[in-house]
């Protein structure tokens, strides 16, 4: 069927949270099949008895989300509206009376997963609504025939679409010129994390990108609306705010502002207790080159994570030109070098596409060398997938075997890095927001957004804590909680002269969030801190904080530390693989190495006892 536009001429649709009248929603009744009896007769004969229909708002909706954080935010908004109208939300497909699939069009595997899910839904004869970038960017897909669709800018009308779909109608709401409101009801996947979309679409025209077909040209929310949203979510108890978009760096260029202006306005609204953090989302190099110093100033703020996701995609200028990325490798280096220099503890993540059409061995070697040079702690490596309708899909492809080999080689190079090797023994402040995949550890992040796994009660979720890093792994580090910070006092920067000893244990806006063990040159004056607020010195009075572990001086202590590190490594490997089961050994149980060690100790003990008894027996006989 053709896409159905909003039928309210001259208006942007219903206000957020309100349903339009039925005649304002375009619907296409499903065709009746003679061999498939309907549960509810649709005859117009008033004398014909009807089966009682379910009351709208009493059903359960299964929601499945693919793709980026922006998609996750859209799903949370849709769940919020459905929940506000009485629908139950479930992540179990068996419980769902209707399935709502929010899709991603970036890569072929995610779209294939969507197709599989649609097939399962149709086989289960469940009503289906598809949202997200796939139907928006590819409206004529065969898999979407007979399926209701919610466009990416129509998420505020999901209730209407769901209700009509449950009645047996096919509904498609696709086009709109206004952005959905930010004040819609929302059910967050993590109640402590608000994913805040600051704009939709982008200004780029990358030759491989299908998302532009779905999200369209840049459309930015106003600074006032974003500030109001931040105030609201902070009042709701949110502890992390993630700024999300297809290109954060392009924010505001369509409305006469820019990203630094927005960031400064948002930072001004963060609570002074330091317990709510801001994370800046993915940004492409072209649109932040002119604002690097201003962005660095924001990243140094104590309530902003010193972390940025800057995709490079290739280390070859020739490939970047073919991708139409609108920057050079040198400009990407400028971004990384400048932020690393100006922001202590800065962590940068990047993306690489292996096997883009025309990529030669030399092009790929330049990419490998770039990754080796910077040793990024996070690199998202993907193979090139031709997306239908994009210019890159018509380019001559690199053989798939070569693409796979290059992806494996670069992955091996990346996984050989040890980015956190120097953190053991350090004391860091972390912000704890979720339970780890193993169900045992809590997940926190340092100011540099390094993942720290700690053991503690779930009551620590949504809090900040001082931890000592006890061991490091490839993907995260492990820590022991020294103190939970329920409230941290902030004060204005002091006079130029300050106590040297206090300086060494104070968080300031130029710190990575760690308390230094050794005294460092004092630089707490107004000239260095810019008169900004700084965190009061951290109170780490526990003797465990700085004392040497006495057990390190004996064999038992050494064995215990080796066992702890072994367990930590197993836990991290399990988390990296996405394991969801609780592991008994992580609670202090015994693995193969532990059992072997125990058996060896017991055997040695019995041998020693036997030798002593034998010697005593011989002594008695000699007498």
UniProtKB/TrEMBL annotation:
Check the record and name the InterPro entries matching this protein: Elp3/MiaA/NifB-like_rSAM (IPR006638), Methylthiotransferase (IPR005839), Methylthiotransferase_CS (IPR020612), Methylthiotransferase_N (IPR013848), Methylthiotransferase_N_sf (IPR038135), MiaB-like_arc_euk (IPR006466), rSAM (IPR007197), rSAM_horseshoe (IPR023404)
Q: What EC number(s) does the entry state?
A: 2.8.4.5
Q: What is this protein called?
A: Threonylcarbamoyladenosine tRNA methylthiotransferase
- Decide whether keyword Amino-acid biosynthesis is in the record: no
Species name for this entry? Theobroma cacao (Cacao)
Q: Which reaction does it catalyse?
A: N(6)-L-threonylcarbamoyladenosine(37) in tRNA + (sulfur carrier)-SH + AH2 + 2 S-adenosyl-L-methionine = 2-methylsulfanyl-N(6)-L-threonylcarbamoyladenosine(37) in tRNA + (sulfur carrier)-H + 5'-deoxyadenosine + L-methionine + A + S-adenosyl-L-homocysteine + 2 H(+)
Protein family membership = Belongs to the methylthiotransferase family. CDKAL1 subfamily.
Question: Any stretches that span the bilayer, and where are they?
Answer: 596-617
Which residues lie within the region annotated Disordered?
Answer: 20-51
What Gene3D superfamilies does the database record attribute to this sequence?
Methylthiotransferase, N-terminal domain, tm_1862 like domain
Name the keywords, alphabetized: 4Fe-4S, Iron, Iron-sulfur, Membrane, Metal-binding, S-adenosyl-L-methionine, Transferase, Transmembrane, Transmembrane helix, tRNA processing
Sorted alphabetically, the Gene Ontology BP terms of this entry are: tRNA methylthiolation
- Cofactor(s) listed: [4Fe-4S] cluster
> Function, please?
Catalyzes the methylthiolation of N6-threonylcarbamoyladenosine (t(6)A), leading to the formation of 2-methylthio-N6-threonylcarbamoyladenosine (ms(2)t(6)A) at position 37 in tRNAs that read codons beginning with adenine.
SUPFAM superfamilies, A to Z: Radical SAM enzymes
Molecular function in Gene Ontology: 4 iron, 4 sulfur cluster binding; metal ion binding; tRNA (N(6)-L-threonylcarbamoyladenosine(37)-C(2))-methylthiotransferase activity
Ranges for domain TRAM come to: 421-483
PROSITE patterns xrefs = MTTASE_N, MTTASE_RADICAL, RADICAL_SAM, TRAM
GO cellular component terms, A-Z:
endoplasmic reticulum
* Pfam families hit by this protein: Radical_SAM (PF04055), UPF0004 (PF00919)
Q: Which residues form the Radical SAM core domain?
A: 188-420
């Amino acid at each position: 069927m053709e896409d159905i536009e909003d039928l309210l001429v001259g208006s942007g649709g219903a206000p957020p949270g309100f349903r339009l009248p039925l005649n304002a929603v375009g619907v296409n009744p499903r065709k009746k099949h003679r061999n498939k009896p309907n549960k509810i007769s649709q005859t117009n004969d008033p004398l014909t008895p009807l089966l009682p229909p379910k009351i709208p708002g009493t059903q359960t909706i299964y929601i499945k989300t693919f793709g980026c954080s922006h998609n996750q935010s859209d799903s949370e908004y849709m769940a919020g509206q459905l929940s506000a109208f009485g629908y139950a939300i479930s992540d179990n497909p068996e419980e769902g009376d209707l399935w709502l699939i929010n899709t991603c069009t970036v890569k072929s595997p995610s779209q294939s997963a969507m197709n599989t899910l649609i097939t399962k839904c149709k086989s289960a004869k469940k009503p289906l609504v598809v949202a997200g970038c796939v139907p928006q960017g590819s409206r004529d897909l065969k898999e979407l025939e007979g399926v209701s669709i919610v466009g990416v800018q129509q998420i505020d009308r999901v209730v209407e679409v769901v209700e009509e779909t449950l009645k047996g109608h096919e509904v498609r709401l696709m086009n709109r010129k206004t952005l959905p409101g930010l004040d819609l009801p929302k059910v967050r996947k993590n109640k402590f994390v608000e994913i805040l979309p600051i704009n939709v679409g982008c200004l780029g025209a990358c030759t491989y990108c299908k998302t532009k077909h779905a999200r369209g040209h840049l459309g930015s929310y106003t600074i006032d609306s974003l500030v109001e949203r931040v105030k609201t979510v902070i009042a709701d108890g949110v502890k992390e705010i993630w700024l999300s978009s297809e290109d954060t760096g392009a924010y505001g260029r369509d409305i006469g502002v820019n990203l630094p202006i927005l960031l400064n306005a948002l930072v001004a609204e963060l609570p002074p207790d330091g317990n709510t953090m801001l994370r800046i989302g993915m940004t492409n190099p072209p649109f932040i080159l002119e604002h690097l110093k201003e962005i660095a100033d924001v990243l140094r703020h104590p309530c902003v994570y010193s972390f940025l996701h800057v995709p490079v995609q290739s280390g070859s200028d020739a490939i970047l030109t073919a991708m139409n990325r609108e920057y050079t490798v040198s400009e990407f280096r400028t971004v990384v070098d400048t932020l690393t220099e100006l922001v202590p503890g800065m962590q940068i993540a990047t993306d690489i596409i292996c096997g883009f059409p025309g990529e030669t061995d030399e092009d790929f070697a330049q990419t490998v060398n770039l990754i080796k040079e910077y040793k990024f702690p996070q690199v998202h490596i993907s193979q090139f997938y031709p997306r239908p309708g994009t210019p890159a899909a018509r380019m001559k492809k690199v053989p798939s075997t070569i693409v796979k080999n290059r992806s494996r080689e670069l992955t091996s190079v990346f996984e050989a890095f040890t980015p956190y090797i120097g953190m053991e023994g350090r004391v860091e402040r972390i912000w704890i927001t979720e339970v780890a995949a193993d169900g045992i550890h809590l997940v926190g992040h340092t100011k540099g957004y390094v993942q720290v796994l700690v053991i503690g009660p779930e009551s620590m979720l949504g809090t900040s804590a001082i931890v000592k890093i006890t061991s490091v792994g490839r993907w995260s580090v492990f820590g022991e909680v020294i103190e939970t910070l329920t409230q941290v006092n902030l004060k204005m920067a002091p006079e130029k002269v300050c106590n040297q000893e206090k300086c060494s244990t104070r968080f300031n806006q130029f710190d990575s969030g760690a308390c230094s063990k050794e005294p460092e040159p004092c630089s707490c004056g107004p000239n260095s801190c810019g008169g900004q607020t700084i965190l009061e010195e951290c109170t780490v009075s526990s003797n465990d904080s700085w004392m040497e572990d006495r057990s390190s001086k004996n064999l038992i202590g050494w064995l215990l530390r080796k066992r702890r590190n072994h367990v930590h490594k197993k836990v991290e490997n399990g988390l990296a693989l996405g394991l969801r089961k609780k592991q008994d050994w992580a609670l202090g149980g015994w693995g193969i190495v532990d059992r072997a060690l125990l058996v060896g100790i017991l055997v040695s003990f019995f041998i020693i006892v036997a030798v002593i008894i034998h010697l005593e027996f011989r002594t008695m006989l000699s007498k």
